[in-house]
Amino acid sequence: MQRRTLVTAGAAALAFPSLILAQNLPAGPVRIIVGFAPGGGTDILARVIGQKLGEMWKTQVIVENKAGASGTIAADYVSKQAGDGNTLLMAHINSQAITPALQKVNYDPAKDFQSIVLVGVTPNLLICNENQPAKTVKDLVELCRAKPGQVSFGSAGTGSAQHLALEMFMLAAKVKAIHVPYKGSGPMLTDLIGGNIQYSFDTMTAATPHVKSGKAIALAQTRQNRVPAYANVPTMAESGFPGFEATTWYGLVGPAKMPLAMAKRMNEDVNKVMQMPDVMEKLAASGAQDGGGSTEKFGDFMRAEQIKWAKIIKDGGVKGEA
C-alpha cells in the first residue's frame, strides 16, 4: 500500500508540474514588512515589487510598514516569524548592516534570515529645500564652517545610511552639523520641504519625486560614478571629496527557517519581475543598480556589508542611540 501511494504521488507530480512549483510558494497572502514610514525609498521599491509578485502568484502581496529604530523593529519582527514564506522583509542596509554594528539588536543579521534577492544599490542624494542659500557642495561646506553646529541634516534614523553619510561628510569636510533623526525618509522629506530642516543625504529612491517636482534641490550624489538618471548632478568625489561613497541598498529576505527551495523559487520570480520594462524604468529612475542574481550572491553581499560597516563605525567612533 505504501509503495502504491508513493508511485501515485510521483505520477501526479509528473503529470502536473505546476503542483511542484506551487509547493515552493507560500499559501495565502504574503506580507512584505518595511521598516520605515510610507513614502520612503524602501517602501516605494517594496510596493513596485510586491504588486508584480501579487499578479504573478495570484495572491495578495501586502506591504506593511513597521517604522522605527532605523528599520530594526521590522527586522526583529520578521526574524521571529514562521518560515512559511507568508512574511518577508524588505531588507535594508540599516537593519542588516549598519545598526547592528552600532547598538544591540534582538536578532543576528547574519544568522536569522534567509536571503532571497538583492533588489538594488542606490546612491544617496545630498539635497536641500529650494530656500537654502547654499546649493553646491562647496557653498555648503563654507556655510557649515561659518555656522558650526547650526546647519541641520535630516535622516531616516540614528544609525541609518543617511546618518552615516552625514558622519562621513563631517569627517571629510572637517565640519560640524546637527543630525535630526526621523522614523523614515517620508516624514523627514516632509520637514525638509517645509523648511523645518535644511539638508539631507537621502536615498535617491525617496528623494527623486521631490527633486523632479522642484521642491528639493540635488547638490550631489554619493556613488563614484554618476547614475544615468542624474547625469547632470556631480558626485561627491567630483565635488572635492575623492573616494566618498555612501550607498543605500535593498533586498528581500525571509526568516532563517524558510526552506531554501522556497527562497530560490521567489528569487527566480523577483528576477523575472526586475526584467519587466516598467519595473526596469522605475528602478532606473530611482538610481537602483546591480540588482538581481542568486540567493547566494545576496547572502555574500550582506555579509561583506556587515564587515565593512562594522569597521567604519569602529574606526570613526560613531555612536548609536543610548
Task: Give the gist of this structure.
The chain is an alpha/beta fold and 322 residues long. It contains 12 helices and 9 strands. Strands 1, 2, 3, 4, 5, 6, 7, 8 and 9 form a 9-stranded mixed β-sheet that branches.
Walk me through this protein's architecture.
This protein has 322 residues and is of the alpha/beta class. The protein folds into 2 domains: 191 residues, Bordetella uptake gene, domain 1 (D-Maltodextrin-Binding Protein, domain 2, 3-Layer(aba) Sandwich), CATH 3.40.190; 108 residues, Periplasmic binding protein-like II (D-Maltodextrin-Binding Protein, domain 2, 3-Layer(aba) Sandwich), CATH 3.40.190. Strands 1, 2, 3, 4, 5, 6, 7, 8 and 9 form a 9-stranded mixed sheet that branches. Strand 1, helix 3 and strand 2 form a beta-alpha-beta unit. The longest helix has 22 residues.
Layout: helices, strands, pairs:
Layout: H1 2-15, H2 17-23, E1 30-34, H3 41-57, E2 61-65, H4 72-79, E3 87-92, H5 93-102, E4 113-129, H6 137-146, E5 152-155, H7 161-173, E6 178-181, H8 185-194, E7 199-203, H9 204-213, E8 216-221, E9 247-255, H10 260-273, H11 277-285, H12 295-316
Parallel strand pairs: 1-2, 1-3, 5-6, 5-7
Antiparallel strand pairs: 3-9, 4-7, 4-8, 4-9
Per DSSP E runs of 2 or more residues, the count of β-strands stands at 9
Question: What does the main sheet amount to?
Answer: 9 strands, mixed
CATH C-level label of the largest domain: Alpha Beta
Order of helices and strands: HHEHEHEHEHEHEHEHEEHHH
Q: Assign a percent range to the helix content.
A: 40-55%
The CATH superfamily of the largest domain is: Bordetella uptake gene, domain 1
Provide the structure class. Answer: alpha/beta
Q: What's the CATH topology label of the largest domain? A: D-Maltodextrin-Binding Protein, domain 2
Number of domains: 2
**How would you describe the shape?**
globular
Percent of residues in β-strands: 15-25%
The parts where pLDDT drops under 50 for at least 5 residues are 1-21
Q: List the total number of helices.
A: 12
CATH architecture of the largest domain: 3-Layer(aba) Sandwich
Radius of gyration: 21 Å
Oligomeric category: single chain
Distance between the termini: 64 Å
| Average of the residue pLDDT scores | 90
